[in-house]
Amino acid sequence: MEEQYKKFLIVSTLSVILCLILIFGVYILPISPKLIIKTESSDQIANQIAYMNFLLTFLATLGTVTGLAFALYGYYQTQKIPELVKDQVRKQINVQMNQVTNEMNETVKKSLKALVQLSERSVLGRHNYVNPLSPLYDIEEAEQTFPELWGLEYFKAIYKWYESYDFKNKKDEAIALMKSHIEKNPEHIKAYIYLIFWHKISGSHIEAIIVLRDLLKVQPSLCYEEGLYQDLDWNSSREIVEFRNKVLFDAEKKLYEAEGKLDEFFDFGKPTVLEEKLQKYRANMEMEIFKRKYFYAR
Q: What single-letter DSSP state applies at residue 51?
């Protein structure tokens, strides 16, 4: 606004000066011809022509000076524009930064509050005995405070499974919550572990092996974790054990491939680490389905 006012003031001043010069040339100069022309001739036409020549010359000079003035003013403006742009951009950036900072602060406050609500029971320990509310209340309270807090579905799933007793609908709800959590957090290893054993405990061995396969895609080295296959209740049928072992050997094959040692993997005369581990849990099953040769030598 201030720059516009300066511009208006300059143009107005120049216009007034131009008008004064015109008045001077039209009304004042003819009164004193001796100031313009010093000649002994009394030829009126020659004097008029001289007046006009002088006036035109003067106007041309004035136009030149005015043009230079506008040029200087334009140069001044071009020098100021970058600064004005910088100031405006800086102001907008500051406004945006303040807004983002306030939003981040609010988000951090809510997330910390939700985390405290979720962990309050563990922090208080034995002093929490006066609290008659279930752990599910703590989870839902944290969810209400900050729905984006990581792991809410995970904790709700675990609570619903182990507090559901024999209510099948609650267990199904727990499994659905854990699946949803895994979809959003495919790198969360413990979530797969819970889901595998929940399926296995429920007698859904095929579903358990499918989850095991998804887990080993994320971290193939877990095929060496004996806790995943040491329970003998895996041995419900030959088909189940065969499917499980194939998934495990596929993961081990990926490990050999990553190390550039596929030739060693296909050297069936030498047992792999996984083969040696699986032998301990063969029970009465056929030996062949515990050997990688059974799956890859065909």
A: H
Structure tokens at 57: 């010359």
DSSP alpha helix (H) spans, the chain:
2-23, 33-36, 44-124, 135-145, 152-162, 168-184, 189-201, 205-218, 238-258, 262-265, 273-279, 293-296
Q: Do the Cβ atoms of 218 and 186 come closer than 8 Å?
A: yes
Contact 63, 18 (CB under 8 A): no
Measured from the Cβ of residue 90, the count of other Cβ atoms closer than 10 Å reads: 10
User: pLDDT tens-digit profile of 40-49?
Assistant: 455 666 666 6
Q: Count CA within 13 A, CB hemisphere, residue 94.
A: 6
Query: 161 CB contacts (<8 Å, ≥6 apart)?
Result: 170, 171, 174, 175, 194, 198
C-beta of residue 165 within 8 angstroms of C-beta of residue 174: no
CA dist list (Å): 205 to 15, 110, 210, 212, 290: 95, 41, 9, 10, 18
Q: Given its phi and psi angles, is residue 86 left (phi above 0), alpha (psi -120 to 50 degrees) or beta?
A: alpha
Give the other-Cβ count within 10 Å of 81's Cβ: 11
Three-state DSSP state, 147: coil
pLDDT for 218-249, tens place per residue?
Answer: 999 999 999 999 888 888 899 999 999 999 99
Question: How far apart (Å, rounded) are the C-alpha atoms in residues 237 and 206?
Answer: 11
